[in-house]
Design a protein that fits this description.
By secondary structure, this protein is mainly beta. It has one domain. The chain is about 15% helix and about 40% strand. Strand 6 and strand 7 form a beta hairpin.
Amino acid sequence: MSHTVRVGNGRLVVPLETYECYLGAATSAALLERDGRVLLLPLSGPVAGGLLLKQRNLHGDRVLLAPEFLARCGHGELGTDREYAVRWASEDGALWIEGLSAAG
C-alpha cells in the first residue's frame, strides 16, 4: 500500500492510514526543510511543541495548519489540493514528503 498526504489551502492533510502507519500517537509535528527535502517530524508529549495534528473528520484523518511554510513550497492559500507520496526516512526519524520542496 502506498501512503500519501494532501497539501492545499494552507493545510497538510494526513489520511488515517498514513497517520497510523508512520506517526502513531503523535499529537503534533514539525515541518522541516533539510537538504532540499521536506520532512514531517512526529512529536508527542505535553511539552513537545510543534504544530497540532488535529483530527479533521470522523474517519480520523489529521490536518496540520502551516500556511507560511506551504506557501514557500509553492502552495498558496487558494491553490489546488495536490497529493504527495511519502516514505519513512529512518535516518531523520521523520516522514519524507516526496516532491514537496521548501525551495519552491
